[in-house]
Amino acid sequence: MRAYDIIAKKRDGQALTGEEIRAFIHGYAQGDIPDYQAAAWSMAVYLKGMNVQETAALTEAMVTSGEQMDLSAIDGVKVDKHSTGGVGDTTTLILAPLLSAMALPVAKMSGRGLGHTGGTLDKLESIPAMKVGLSTDEFIDQVQRIGIAVAGQTANLVPADKKLYALRDVTATVESIPLIASSVMSKKLASGADAILLDVKVGRAAFMKTKEEALKLAQAMVDIGSRLGRRTMALLTSMEQPLGNAVGNALEVAEAVATLANQSDCGFGPVSAELKKVTLELAARLAWMAGKASSVEEAMVLAEEKLSSGEALARFRLFVEAQGGDGRVAENPEEILPRSTYREPVRAEKAGVVTSLDGLIIGQAAALLGAGRSKKEDAVDPAVGVVIHKRIGDPIEPGDVLAEIFANDRGRDEAKQLVRSAYTISVGSAQVPILPLILGEVRPEQ
Ligand code: URA
Ligand code: CA
């Protein structure tokens, strides 16, 4: 089987066989197929698409290009959640302890961030002494002992995706549903969970700008999971404005703790009700998928109970301490977490109502302050970021604090200007957009 023939077949719009896809992907991962052929192949897939069988075969080929996590030593249904990315998406920090409080084993492998803000690992590392580099044995042992671990991946998972994603990034072939769906799902499948929930973000600050596009991606990912034998479901959630109010690593930890503690304020600003709502919706679906309740509604009652009783917060503390972190962060985040030198308000100049709030710009402002990284090797500043005080639909008086900047020596003035420009404040009888938070759901065919 020559790589040339496989490229030509896809170029001509034909469906590839599983064998052809496997040969191509494994050949590429092993270095037998060069980048230029993989680039041509990616463009052919981008232009001609893939059917459901091909997409599943591609995912499986990627999974088998490297190691796979074996979580079978852990009792119970192992659940995992993946978000397609947005701004102020602090859900994992709240969801993981909440699921653990619902007696679901949480063996979560997370990543670092690139772009706007850090990833879950960066956020966790803002907690003093917290370790996220566990060996596979330590990781599994911790889940067996206390029911929860969140760490960076140690095994060599999906090497084909690492190569292919980097290649797509520089060949204008990222925005392809079969390529995105197989890329995301290969990593979830290799991580070993039995049940997978995909949080597909829709809106201005998301990868998928419209509900139609998001539904297509969600359906493709659910099809892959189902074909490859995992319980898989997707929820479409709004990313029209940042989900949480905090955007920045330690700030997001503080908002997560306040949410877990059922507070409406994190000491530096309001807690986002939307963040709590989306986290509960995700928790209820995962608990239902794992068989903890006979309906999503029943699972929601359980999730709300575990959050309001403080059990989820207690699980968070246990988890932080198990990974060497200072557990007092669960009671006094403001004292324990690193703080920035400057805290400065961005104020409204005129009266009106917030009609849009661009999360991408808020994310850029946080990154300018040092909360994100532009290259993989960059360090993040845990203390800096932006905290939103006014969201879409809020009425505004002149002088009101729209948001606050938490800064050290980098980017203060520029970040303030960016934050101001992220807001659209309309006067008079402006139409305030209605923003449903949950836009849809894709369940596997029964
Ligand atoms: N995220 C991924 O992991 N892969 C893609 O292809 C796109 C987004
Ligand atoms: Ca640390």
TrEMBL record:
It comes from Heliobacterium mobile. Catalyzes phosphorolysis of the pyrimidine nucleosides uridine, thymidine and 2'-deoxyuridine with the formation of the corresponding pyrimidine base and ribose-1-phosphate. PROSITE patterns: THYMID_PHOSPHORYLASE. InterPro entries: Glycosyl_Trfase_fam3, Glycosyl_Trfase_fam3_N_dom, Glycosyl_Trfase_fam3_N_dom_sf, Nuc_phospho_transferase, PYNP-like_C_sf, PYNP_C, Pyrmidine_PPas_bac/euk, Pyrmidine_PPase_CS. Homodimer. This is Pyrimidine-nucleoside phosphorylase. The keyword Glycosyltransferase applies. It catalyses: uridine + phosphate = alpha-D-ribose 1-phosphate + uracil; 2'-deoxyuridine + phosphate = 2-deoxy-alpha-D-ribose 1-phosphate + uracil; thymidine + phosphate = 2-deoxy-alpha-D-ribose 1-phosphate + thymine. GO terms for biological process: pyrimidine nucleobase metabolic process; pyrimidine nucleoside metabolic process. One of its GO terms (molecular function) is 1,4-alpha-oligoglucan phosphorylase activity. Keywords: Glycosyltransferase, Transferase. Residues 353-426 form the Pyrimidine nucleoside phosphorylase C-terminal domain. GO terms for cellular component: cytosol. Its EC number is 2.4.2.2. The keyword Transferase applies. Belongs to the thymidine/pyrimidine-nucleoside phosphorylase family.
